[in-house]
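can u do me a favor
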């Protein structure tokens, strides 16, 4: 049986993804190149270039690499562990990891974070985004992608980063995916707010959004 591959219908609309990702570009500074692991169609790479950053993507799907290169983006056709294993210590100013860790085994995630730490310059930052396991409406949707292996809560990611020497800069629910009641439909809005209150009362933290983010820095 062939291995499952990325399917176009699992990607958000391009403009929607660009709007959601642009706020995270501010965590990266010029001076050293920035790496986008699992860069997909290259929306984040293009944002980096637009913000005058020297950006390089890594992608294992040849079709997606072709899409990126058609836009003039610098992309390596490789799996992330092989690419990171070839990097010298230091040399990268930042690493973006958007919706990748949920596609990897635990062992491969550990190797990736170790490789990212080694590849970063001191002061370099890593930004990780992944589906929110506490966002109950999205739990079933998470498993609709056959390439997903496991969800990662914020606590697990921050613990892994800290154990590898990173300092956590920020973490939480991605504002672009927060629950925003639509008051044009007041009954539904009230139900949404009551649902959010109930889940907070039972200490389900970081509930109100479909994605979580973690920003960490190498001292």
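np, heres the sequence
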């Amino acid at each position: 049986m062939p291995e499952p591959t990325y399917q176009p219908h699992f990607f958000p609309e391009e403009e929607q993804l660009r709007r959601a990702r642009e706020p995270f570009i501010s965590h990266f500074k010029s001076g050293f190149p920035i790496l986008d692991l699992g860069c997909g169609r290259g929306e984040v790479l293009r944002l980096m270039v637009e913000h005058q950053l020297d950006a390089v993507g890594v992608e294992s799907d040849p079709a997606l690499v072709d899409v990126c290169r058609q836009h003039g983006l610098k992309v390596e056709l490789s799996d992330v562990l092989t690419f990171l294993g070839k990097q010298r210590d230091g040399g990268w100013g930042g690493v973006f990891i958007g919706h990748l860790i949920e596609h990897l085994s635990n062992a491969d995630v550990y190797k990736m974070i170790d490789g990212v730490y080694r590849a970063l310059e001191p002061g370099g930052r890593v930004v990780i985004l992944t589906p929110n396991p506490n966002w109950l409406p999205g739990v079933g949707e998470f498993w609709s992608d056959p390439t997903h292996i496991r969800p990662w809560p914020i606590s697990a990611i921050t613990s892994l980063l800290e154990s590898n020497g990173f300092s956590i800069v920020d973490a939480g629910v991605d504002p672009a995916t927060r629950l925003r009641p639509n008051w044009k439909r007041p009954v539904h809005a009230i139900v949404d707010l009551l649902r959010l209150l109930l889940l907070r009362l039972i200490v389900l933290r970081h509930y109100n959004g479909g994605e979580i983010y973690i920003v960490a820095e190498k001292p």
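Residues 1-10 have pLDDT under 50 and may be disordered. hope that helps!!
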